[in-house]
Design brief:
Distance between the termini: 28 Å
Number of helices: 9
Strand order of the largest sheet: 13-16-25-8-9-15-14
Largest sheet: 7 strands, mixed
Number of strands: 25
Radius of gyration: 24 Å
Structural class: alpha+beta
């Protein structure tokens, strides 16, 4: 239980005179998903009317070659408070800032902008990290300036120092405006930079990779220590008491499990959940002839995920909710040993296996599936077991049905999350398409399987035989009863072509599954009128999707 912390936080935020207008800071730190890498074109171009703020310098306050290591020397006029909106800076676009602050503000004021008066409390959002950074490069240790850091990764450092100076600037600006400034929440969006090549953790750019169990413990402890120091240093500047809460997402890769471990160990860290449901930057257009990397988020993806974070911040800090993401609690082998029952912590029951919004995740084999709805089961020797069905059997319980009963005395482990979306069958032919595109002609019609993928935008296809390749599909059509997939040959992975006769599969950018809760909360923003997908004008769904996990044991 984390309710004891909430009282400390509210006490700290209420320390100033109640008559002074209040500006609450949301201080962000992280790498590329936090700085909006390739999240273009931006979708929050104007003041949204929710009263939230940024520095005139922008949400991204750390800029290379602009007093990056000496933030105290940045010009004072760049720290005037202005309405919060997205800004483009080279390849950087939309961030989570507007989604996060606007949703939190909307939740506080009953989704009624008319209640936002001049004296109403508002949020100020600031971010001082950089894409590709490791946790100790973003910390006070600032290893980005270490001589052992590759020269190509030395950009001046000063990320943590900038965050502290941003707080000083906020205190000064609030004082000038006759307002009270306190930091309400910290938001952490880093972890990919510490992922190792074999599934462990890289503590630095020069030390050996830590094996997974030791690496997860290392990252957990680093994140807890980071929050404690960041909280103490910022509170010393703002004059707050207590501890500052840190919210984080679940990173893809090993650090994602470590973040959940940190949230379990530190009553002041809250894991919002995974971000795999949002569209990736393969839907972005960073240049007239270039799209984004699949690890990044589209502009809608940034703003949508920001709303998820703002939702949880409001529930924890305003409603005193003891938040837990959708996650497994335990798994048991049923009496007949032909199924496994998994109990979950569910924010808003009942559980739903959703194959309408997200394409059904599956890897089919004869007799069933080795992966279905995101779930995989392996025996004690690590061999995959065949699933015949995944079913919601109670508001907080899922049943995995096995093709063959598990032998007596044998155990199994369960994982959740895989990028494959659907088997598309045999590639019948390749041909030229219009305007310098190319097309993959399938041997059958797969429109139903592709509908959810097309709704969110572009998706990948990959081959299962021959030299591996992959390409983003940006349009489809039907021709003589079969499906045709259109792509840009310049986007082929390593320029390796497909070959007729290959078996191919559809993929999403992120490992995912189909299990979510039934959270009814409405979003503040809607999908923008973009050039991808079919969701323009629809609200962002704020369901909570199950966290990714890799090694859940099933008890007898």
């Amino acid at each position: 239980m984390k309710l004891r912390f909430i009282l400390l936080a509210l006490t700290g935020l209420a320390g100033a005179a109640d008559t002074a207008p209040k500006i609450s800071g949301i201080w962000m730190m992280g790498q590329s998903l936090c700085d909006g890498s390739e999240s273009l074109p931006i979708v929050t171009r104007e003041d949204t009317g929710w009263g939230n703020l940024a520095f005139q310098r922008g949400v991204r306050t750390w800029l290379p070659k602009d007093n990056s290591a000496t933030p105290e020397l940045r010009p004072a006029e760049l720290f005037k408070l202005v309405p919060l909106r997205a800004q483009t800076n080279g390849g950087l676009g939309e961030t989570v800032a507007n989604g996060m602050a606007d949703h939190w503000q909307s939740a506080r004021f009953g989704n009624d902008k008319a209640r936002i008066t001049q004296s109403a409390p508002r949020f100020l959002v600031a971010y001082s990290g950089q894409g590709g950074r490791q946790i100790q490069e973003l910390s006070s240790a600032d290893l980005s300036t270490d001589a052992r850091t590759p020269e190509s990764r030395r950009h001046g450092g000063g990320y943590y120092r900038t965050s502290l100076d941003d707080a000083r600037r906020a205190v000064a600006q609030a004082k000038t405006a006759g307002a009270d400034f306190r930091i309400a929440a910290l938001y952490w969006m880093q972890g990919e930079g510490n992922g190792g090549p074999t599934g462990g953790i890289m503590p630095t750019r020069w030390d050996a990779e830590l094996p997974r169990p030791a690496g997860l413990a290392w990252y957990r402890d680093q994140l807890i220590a980071y929050r404690k120091q960041w909280s103490a240093d910022l509170c010393a500047i703002t004059g707050q008491g207590g501890e500052l809460p840190m919210f984080t997402y679940q990173t893809l890769g090993p650090a994602g499990e470590a973040q959940l471990m940190a949230a379990d160990a530190d009553q002041n860290i809250w894991l919002v959940g995974p971000h795999y449901a949002v569209p990736s930057a393969i839907n972005s257009r960073t240049k007239p002839d270039r799209h984004g990397d699949p690890i990044h988020l589209s502009a809608d993806g940034e703003r949508w995920w920001g709303e998820q974070v703002g939702k949880v911040m409001h529930r924890v800090l305003d409603r005193s909710e003891d938040w837990q993401p959708l996650r497994p609690l335990s798994a048991k082998i049923a009496a007949g040993r032909d199924s496994i029952l998994i109990d979950f912590s569910v924010p808003r029951p009942p559980l739903v296996l959703d194959t309408t919004f997200l394409a059904q995740q599956e890897i089919a084999v004869k007799g069933g599936f080795t992966s279905l709805a995101g779930f995989r089961v392996r025996d004690s020797a690590g061999q995959p077991l065949t699933l015949t069905a995944v079913e919601v059997v109670a508001p907080t319980q899922v049943c995995l049905r096995l093709e063959q009963p598990l032998p007596a005395g044998k155990t199994c482990r369960i994982s959740y999350g895989h990028p494959y979306a659907a088997a598309l069958g045999t590639l019948a032919a390749l041909r030229e398409g219009p305007e310098k595109t190319a097309e993959l002609v399938l041997a059958r019609r797969v429109a139903a399987q592709l509908k959810p993928l097309l709704a969110e935008g572009a998706f990948f296809v990959a081959n299962l035989s021959g030299p591996p390749t992959r390409v983003a599909i940006r349009a489809t059509s039907e021709d003589n009863g079969v499906t045709v997939l259109r792509y840009d040959p310049g986007e082929l992975r390593n320029s390796v072509p497909f070959v007729a006769g290959q078996e191919i599969v559809a993929q999403r950018s992120f490992s995912y599954g189909n299990l979510r809760d039934s959270d009814p909360e409405r979003s503040t923003h809607t999908f923008a009128d973009t050039t991808y997908g079919t969701r323009a004008g629809q609200p962002y769904p704020l369901w909570n999707w199950c966290v990714l996990f890799g090694d859940l044991g099933a008890d007898e």
